[in-house]
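Tokenised fold entry reproduced for everyone:
>
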Amino acid sequence: MKTFLLAAGTAFLISGGFSPEIQTEASEPLIRTDQSSPETKIQVALLLDTSSSMDGLIDQAKSRLWNIVNTLTTLRYKGKAPVVEISLYEYGNDGLSPDGGYIRQVTPLTSDLDLLSEKLFALHTNGGSEYGGQVIRTSAQEVDWDENQNSMKLIYIAGNEPFKQGRGSYVEAISDALKKEINVNTMQCGDDYSGVNGYWKDGAEKGQGEYFFIDHNQKVRYISTPYDVRIDECNTRLNATYLYYGHEGYIMKERQEQQDTAAASIGFENKASRAEAKSKSNYSNTGWDLVDAFNQKQIRLEDVDKSTLPEKYRNMSNEQLLKEIDSLNTERTKIQREIAELSSERGKFIQEELRKTGENDTDLGKAVTDAVLRFAAAKGYTQET
């Protein structure tokens, strides 16, 4: 039985820090420039069949999430990093409401990568009745798609039943998506014959997207590298630089570490890919981490409820707390740079191993990333390596 090999993304460096001149709560923090451009977005809706035959597909999605994220975050538009947002849908699961076509939005478009990981790992299969056209229509209508013509808006649907099942026409659903400049990509979980006869290929052609057929039951085999352990050590140090705040801050900090564990449950190398994603600016936790919140100018120190901070910080003056945030920011930047450098070497090692083996099979992750890169090139995006 063939196995799939993991290709690593590349990383970019996060730089900057807080000015030592910031000493009082009356002073406005000098914030490092956010590298994400508000003008452009890369938006991806991933529609996964969670009927009873799709356990392998869900496993591939779990295995490839961070590889997909790492590829998306290498893209630049006019030198700036677009905001990356991913929405997740499940369909074809008999545990879902038949009135809604056995479809559920698992997450809206989000940049909260820990939330996305948590929801993905909670998926389970059951049933089902798979209505591909209907879930395309639902996602095209429900998702808050960006109106900027320079943004990339992509739907990826994966499943195995013919597109003509369910209420409504898949042709009309895809046509409506195209009116919003959303390209539809299809991944048939089976063979090319089923993909053609089940209208998966036709769906991609009508959606001006890419068509793939994948063996969803193949297991992903990771390539171990000499850099994995060092990246994991960096990840442990990186987690220590997060300073939670707010009434859900502690819970969100726990979730961060839980998703590290979830990634490791797939494979130690997968955890290294997650650490690479955490070294990039698109991994942002402004809602619960004071360092990110200050970096992106999302909160003022005088508005922080200190009773929600870790115990050692609760009785600090604003001046003391600001110095702690500055110190954590400096340490985080250093660690992120180290992870980026190690990840770059790791990627080179993996590519060399792939070259030696000559294996180039397509699974869910490779289908998504290959198509994204082609769309990006067509829209004038560049890839930072």
The chain has two domains: 38-218+361-383, 228-354.
